[in-house]
């Protein structure tokens, strides 16, 4: 299947996103048998045509939800057979229910479909595997860089990195903490600007490339779970996210007076990064290289139980 044919297929899916799209419809556009078309599509796109169609429908569904449409109406609009089936598929893909996304997601734009580069399959798979590991560790480095910015400014003297079981990591610093206050509305706006993201699917991630300097919103979007705790001014602020979407109202409680800092516990999305085991050596080397010349600063990296 050449690029022109694939482009027609992908454009047809988006143009008919509210309809039931069958394998026969797509194979007819491509002028292949359904069996051969299905095989070629999976090889090029890295997923079955039916899986790709479902992802695109659910991405468009987010926009409809944020426009205020009822969940049942959205389910019918995108040709799902039932409210339950739509909710199940939505939650499985994005990690949050439609009602949570409708209430908590700040904004969302359906990503434009991007044509994959059709190259040698074996070489592409090897490169993709290496890129996954590099990008997964880049999530760590993006979070650590914020702690180091505090250190370079003279407000942070220590960062602790704890590798936890099941592919989780905890990063804690004693910096000033994100500027939050008991004004929950204002604090939510600050967190939304800095951290809130939106779910990223396999299809979207495959076109993202290198995540260097991706920013905390992208990091959060690529985590199936992220919890941030900020201590500042005698208060403690806590928020939980799933793939960039807040899961509750900001929790504010008392903290020990005079204590400040930020703690982030996160787990990369296993739907994207199949192996979420971090390399202690890679993290240590990055910390060693990037803290050279930072005065009065120490880091502690260890494996937790």
Feature tags:
305 residues; Heat Shock Protein 90; globular; alpha+beta; Arc Repressor Mutant, subunit A; 2 domains; 8 strands; 8-stranded mixed β-sheet; single chain
Q: What do you see in this structure?
A:
Helix 2 (23-30) crosses helix 3, helix 5 (71-77) packs across helix 6 (83-94) and helix 8 (121-152) crosses helix 12 (280-291). The protein is globular, with a radius of gyration of 22 Å. Strands 1, 2, 3, 4, 5, 6, 7 and 8 form an eight-stranded mixed β-sheet that branches. The termini are far apart. The longest helix is centred in the middle third of the chain and has 32 residues, at 121-152. It contains twelve helices and eight strands. The protein has 305 residues and is α+β, with helices and mostly antiparallel strands. It has two domains: 3-104, Homeodomain-like (Arc Repressor Mutant, subunit A), CATH 1.10.10.60; 128-303, Histidine kinase-like ATPase, C-terminal domain (Heat Shock Protein 90), CATH 3.30.565. A hairpin with a 2-residue loop joins strand 4 (235-242) and strand 5 (245-246).
Write the layout of secondary structure elements.
Blueprint: H1 3-15, H2 23-30, H3 34-45, H4 49-66, H5 71-77, H6 83-94, H7 98-104, H8 121-152, E1 158-163, E2 169-173, H9 184-194, H10 202-205, H11 216-221, E3 223-232, E4 235-242, E5 245-246, E6 251-254, E7 261-268, H12 280-291, E8 298-303
Parallel strand pairs: 1-8
Antiparallel strand pairs: 1-2, 2-7, 3-4, 3-7, 4-5, 4-6
Helix pairs in contact: 2-3, 5-6, 8-12
